[in-house]
Amino acid sequence: MSAGATTPFVDPASDFSDGLQVLQTYHGSFLQHGRQLLALMEAIMAQGLDEQRALEAGRLSRYYAEITRLHHRDEERIVFPLILNKSFVIDGMIERLALDHEDIEAAWAELYGALQAPEHIMSSEQSLIGARRFERGLREHIEREDLDFFPEIERWLSPDQCAEAGRRMAQLRR
User: Fewer Cβ within 10 Å of end Cβ, the chain: N or C?
Assistant: First the structure.
């Protein structure tokens, strides 16, 4: 397999019967891949680039390019509208999470170039700093959602609304 070979994107969620569970599944996948991203960047900086690391950079690049877009779209188009204007607290949380999305996407745009040309990572401390910034931003966003946001929305959304959110998420992927 050459460094340019691609593997298809596999959605972390296989069950769309509950939209909130889909978001939780994505959170777990983000955290796992974040650890992989940092390990890869540190390995390239310390040991250089080989074919396996180049393949991993490509895999992570494709993963994040697809999954971040899907996850933010699920939240912004499907979940947020279901609870918008329910309370000032919820509205404030949604605003903060939307700002997080912008920050995460900006950090991703910087990191994407490094993952597309991994041969430049080993000579650039900026690539490692960018990876850490992206991973930290995503991790802190997930923590904010899991600890503050999800308990609130679980109070407001009925099981039928969660099921409908899951159906809509599945439709967006077709």
Answer: C
In this structure, are residues 139 and 36 in contact, taking their beta carbons and an 8 Å threshold?
no
List the structure tokens of 77.
Answer: 């188009």
Which residues, including other chains, have CB under 8 Å from residue 126's CB and lie 6 or more apart? 114
- How far is residue 10's CA from residue 73's CA, in Å, rounded to a whole number? 17
Domain positions in the chain are 19-172
- Distance (Å, rounded) from C-alpha 9 to C-alpha 17? 21
Residue 90: count other Cβ atoms within 10 Å of its Cβ.
Answer: 18
List, for residues 68-90, the tens digit of each pLDDT value.
Answer: 989 999 999 999 999 999 999 99
Topology of 19-172 in CATH?
A: Four Helix Bundle (Hemerythrin (Met), subunit A) (1.20.120)
52: amino acid identity, one letter: Q
Q: Taking residues 117-132, what's their average pLDDT? A: 79
- Taking the C-alpha atoms of residue 56 and residue 36, their distance in angstroms, rounded to an integer, is 9
Whole-angstrom Cα distance, residue 82 to residue 130?
34
